[in-house]
Structures are given as C-alpha cells and as structure tokens.
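Bumping my old thread because nobody answered last time. Still need a sequence for this structure:
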C-alpha cells in the first residue's frame, strides 16, 4: 500500500512498508492529496477513495480516543 506523505516538486513522496517511493505526479490519475492511498495499475496509479476514507476515519477515531473528545 502506498500512502502519499508529501509533495516535492513534481513528485508525490509515498510511504510504503520499510521506506519511501517517489512517484511522478503525471502518473497519478485524479487530484492527489496528502494521506491518499494509491493503487498501482500498470505504469499508472489510482487513488483508492474507499481505503483513503477508511484510513482517515480510523485516524479521527484514534485522535478522539487519545484526546477524549
């Protein structure tokens, strides 16, 4: 699973198990944002809206549990 950590120039710097991978923005379909989950599809990458939403909800839940809100 690739998760966009940040953008540097024309690249999305993605986290993956054990490291990072730089992906050229022109190879990503759609409008990528930090935190999006990418799925490799041949030489292109797609944003997984379902997985991105699941991860964001999980992070919100963790914050609520941590800060008691």
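Sorry it took so long. Here it is:
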């Amino acid at each position: 699973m690739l998760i966009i950590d940040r953008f540097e120039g024309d690249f999305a710097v993605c986290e993956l198990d054990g490291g990072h991978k730089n992906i050229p923005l022109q190879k990503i379909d759609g409008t990528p944002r930090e935190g999006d989950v990418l799925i490799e599809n041949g030489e292109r990458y797609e944003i997984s809206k379902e997985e991105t939403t699941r991860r964001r909800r999980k992070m919100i839940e963790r914050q609520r549990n941590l800060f008691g809100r």
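The two ends are 30 Å apart (CA to CA). Let me know if any region looks off to you.
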